[in-house]
Amino acid sequence: MTRKQRRLTLIAAAGTVLAVSAGLVLNAASSRITLFKTPTEIAEGLAGQGDQRLRIGGLVKDGSVLRGEGATVRFAVTDTVNDVPVTYVGLLPDLFREGQGVVAEGRLGPDGVFTADNVLAKHDENYMPKEVVDSLKAQGVWEGDGAGAMKSN
Amino acid sequence: MISEVGHFALVLALILALVQSVVPVIGARRNDAALMAIAPPVAVTQLLLIALSFAALTHAYVVSDFSVVNVYENSHSAKPMLYKITGVWGNHEGSMLLWVLILALFGAAVAWFGGNLPTTLKANVLGVQAWITVAFLLFILLTSNPFLRLSPAPMEGQDLNPLLQDIGLAIHPPLLYLGYVGFSISFAFAVAALIEGRIDAAWARWVRPWTLAAWVFLTAGISMGSYWAYYELGWGGWWFWDPVENASFMPWLIGTALLHSALVMEKRNALKIWTVLLAILTFSLSLLGTFLVRSGILTSVHSFATDPARGVFILTILLIFIGGSLALFALRASSLQAGGLFAPVSREGALVLNNLLLTAATASVLVGTLYPMALEAVTGDKISVGEPFFNLTFGPLMIPLLLAVPFGPFLAWKRGDIYAVAQRLYAAFGIAILVTLAVIWATSGGPVLAALGIGLATWLMVGAAAELLFRARFGDVGFAAGWRRLAGLPRSAYGTAAAHAGLGITLLGIVAVSTFEAETITVMRRGDTATIGAYEVSFDGFENRAAGTYRELVAHMTARKDGEVVARLDPSKRIYEVRQMPTTEAAIVTHGFSQLYVTLGDTTAENDGITVRMWDKPLVTLIWLGTVAMMLGGALSLSDRRLRVGAPKPARAAPRPGRTLAAGE
Description:
Radius of gyration of chain A: 22 Å
Number of strands of chain A: 7
Order of helices and strands of chain A: HEHEEEEEEH
Strand content of chain B: 5-15%
Shape of chain A: elongated
CATH class of the largest domain in chain A: Mainly Beta
Strand order of the largest sheet of chain A: 2-4-5-7-6
Radius of gyration of chain B: 27 Å
Largest interface: A-B, 48 and 63 residues
Oligomer: heterodimer
Strand content of chain A: 25-35%
Largest sheet of chain A: 5 strands, mixed, barrel
Structural class of chain B: alpha+beta
Distance between the termini of chain B: 66 Å
Helix content of chain B: 55-70%
Number of helices of chain B: 20
Number of domains of chain A: 2
Shape of chain B: globular
CATH architecture of the largest domain in chain A: Beta Barrel
CATH superfamily of the largest domain in chain A: Nucleic acid-binding proteins
Helix content of chain A: 25-40%
């Protein structure tokens, strides 16, 4: 092979890998992402039902947590204006409490009940998930320090 | 007083770094030996000053000097001594100080061990290294000073985040930083080569051990971080494709590519420009990782506190270094001469394929990490990208790479014979196929993908061993002579085999645990028994305990297999008093390579029972044992300094450093 042919082989190989990986990324980006919605957006019907994975963020509504027998938990996520009922089977994070910020990940059923397969709360006392902060800010009920409420001191 | 000394030492280190970033580079340009000669002593003094500063902060933590804001916010006098010391870097300011300390350590290491470097190259490398030091010392002094005082001094501190009160904090960040920051050396060498416009195989011979050392540390850091998250967070997962994890994984992927391309450059004097580019990209991704974690763009357990000024500052550093080095690359790369030629099917060709796939995989992780942020910044839409995305992008790119790995070491340099290699590997291939079929049969129509994954893992492990056996020539020279030859193989050959087999071991663990894991969640009361996998776990009752800065509710459990007691489990839920923060401590029992993993949820309303989540995780420890094999491989290869990895024959006479290899055909 000449130098030119070798270079062409290399370029063709690089091009193939690049094209395949770009294709994979585009395919995954169109079907395998999770959209974030606030309870109000869901109430207004802006969120897709069925297969689309969603994350909803807000506060755990006071008095809404119901523990069934077994590990099933029902609670409502609220942005103080609208609520979304959530069911979840599993262990809730350590810092999951009523009135505290939470992000639930899963799918929205046709009955409007959100089935979560993952529930995230804060990592520590000073920290609230950014999505929750944004959700509350959107409703004008955010009372933090404006800097993202990461640090209380 | 001691804290002020620490602060002052940091300022002095900055001044020295400024000197080191200018004078040696001018000296190299003018070929002035006196100007170049100042770099090594300055680099060493800088290390001493930064170490002094770090010691001063450590002292403040050890004596619980709460007049220092940083200590007040992150420590507590009742905390065990180990966590007082590790708490030094369990916060933003302290961890940046550790970052700079390690940077200075690597700079001093070049000064110490770089005795046989050409003087101008050494001066330029130390100069470039000092640029990075200047940037990060400025960052610390202007936005993240750990020595700020608080008056009046509080009586007690606010304690460290309980999740960080673990032996993991003593190990994970220093190792990770040794890896991240270690790549700064490859970067400094690359930029120095571009400044000089000259690069040869000798350059690669110096760069490769540094890269290898950084890679070993980064492997250790990531692996340790993964195991820490696995046992501490109580979610039972070991990798979440969290942006912070990706931030450390990207330099690892591209660093692995660099490791292999430096091999080609060292051995064959080819792929020069590409190697320089990879060296720049690797450290750029390390910087990007530092930016993502330290700027507060991402909220995670790693981002201790956020301050917009810091984000902007690191972003500026990022733009200057990445933009500057890439611009320099664009200007100067053409001055580097192209090296040896090779056929597409050859050792070089295989390493190019490795590089292509690793780079593409890095790019897919980069897109998955940055795309959500970019989208939110541009359109305001919030999305998150998780495991499903990476399974569909990263996964398919890894499969051809892993399939190709065993071929690489068998191929000859310059021009290889794929059929001859296939003949040598058919036994390994046969074993992999047999294992795949056996798994399909044993799981009776279970997931075929899992069987194929296990087959691929077998292929990697057996293929790595096959290379050693082939080089020992058991077939030609008989058993006894074969053993002698095997024992006489260079360490680098064992290094390659161990690292490649480690990949297979990790893959086996990943496939086994993601396919055959059993999980159960149930409410248990005293005397209840639950079945998980082959085990019966009975709940023997609660106990309340208090220790140090926390109190905890412990659930005593007994695991039985076939009626025999195999382990006692004591998972607990803790409340750390100072921060009133609850954590969950999982109970983990290792049996063979598998683990039984038990965590607690909430107690029942009547406080007589508790939600328990149990996993049986088959072969899960192989995930980390495989990374240990990779590290061992790297260390073995590193200890074999005189021999170059992949030499076709175990040539005893290693070329002297400085000898230029014959270029190409």
